[in-house]
Design goal:
Elements (H helix, E strand, L loop, with lengths): L1 E2 L1 H27 L8 E15 L6 E4 L3 E10 L4 E28 L5 E30 L4 E29 L4 E3 L8 E10 L7 E14 L2 E12 L11 E6 L2 E6 L12 E15 L1
Parallel strand pairs: 1-3
Antiparallel strand pairs: 2-4, 2-14, 3-5, 4-5, 5-6, 6-7, 7-8, 7-9, 7-10, 10-11, 11-14, 12-13
Length: about 290
């Protein structure tokens, strides 16, 4: 279940920004001069407000995250009003998952090569995730020189470069041996029993390439030979970026018995589809025009 408190605050902020943009258009229109237009523009961009991993894990409360985007953009205007933009952009996403418990079971073998069903229950589970992508934008640009506003629409290709997670939980495990019709709740050296206060952190969340649809609307303010842009944007992830398909708790064999390992819940087969969503305010400063 998703928490939408942050979503409501973000939408209110964007609504107020939209009103500001509408009021700014008439003022900016007077500042634009057709003879000041250039074909090439290089700009730095900064965006943020809402940037989250979107997923739905059963019996789990998923809270939205915040992060920023920072990029370098090149635009070529092939006419007075139309152009094409590309470049490179870092975009971060975050989320937090909490649940009272989740359970699972699967077939494996113990250190004596006996087949059994490994059963587990994770209690009071909390995990925070942060991931980062380098996006390559492929965007068409429309600039209305008379009224001082612009529209950008297109796609971004996101390459995963960073991930981090921390989690904590208590764990109950057992092994059911169907051939003997018995379920073992101990000993711990076989990986069965109660294990409290488990915590993990790592940087091994496996993610696929992200394909994003993007839209941006804003106003343009000339600053002599430079330009300042301000607007609102939406980056909507189109594809499932989940790559891992592991069990949340993996039964492992060791030299002195057995145990278990765990990774991010986003690497597991219970996380389902994972997509990205980012929207908010974007500022663009064009420091080079020629």
């Amino acid at each position: 279940m998703k928490s939408y408190k942050l979503f409501n605050i973000s939408m209110s902020t964007i609504f107020l920004t939209g009103i500001w943009l509408l009021c700014s258009c008439s003022v900016n229109a007077q500042a634009l001069r057709p003879d000041s237009q250039h074909k090439h523009e290089v700009a730095v961009t900064l965006g943020g407000l809402y940037s989250s991993l979107e997923y739905d894990i059963p019996q789990t409360d998923s809270r939205d995250g915040r992060d920023i985007s920072l990029g370098l953009e090149y635009t070529y205007m092939f006419s007075k009003n139309f152009g094409f933009s590309t470049g490179a952009e870092y975009q971060g996403f975050g989320a937090k998952s909490t649940t009272d418990y989740y359970t699972g079971a699967y077939q494996t073998t113990d250190y004596e090569q006996e087949s059994f069903e490994f059963r587990y229950t994770a209690q009071n589970f909390v995990e925070e995730q942060q991931v980062g992508f380098v996006n390559i934008p492929l965007i068409f640009t429309y600039q209305n020189q008379e009224h001082g506003f612009y529209i950008k629409a297109g796609a971004k290709i996101g390459l995963p470069i960073y991930s981090k997670y921390t989690n904590s939980y208590n764990l109950e495990t057992s092994g059911f041996y169907e051939q003997y019709n018995v379920e073992l709740f101990d000993p711990q050296f076989m990986g069965f029993g109660s294990f409290n206060g488990i915590s993990n952190e790592g940087s091994n969340i496996d993610l696929n390439t992200n394909y994003i649809a993007t839209f941006e609307l804003g106003v343009k303010q000339p600053l002599k030979i430079k330009n300042l842009y301000g607007g609102v944007y939406l980056d909507y992830g189109l594809t499932d970026i989940r790559k891992g398909d592991n069990h949340p708790v993996e039964y492992t064999l060791e030299s002195n018995g057995a145990g278990f390992t765990s990774s991010s819940i986003l690497n597991s087969n219970i996380s389902g589809e994972i997509k990205t969503l980012a929207f908010g305010i974007k500022i663009r400063y064009a420091f080079l025009n020629f």
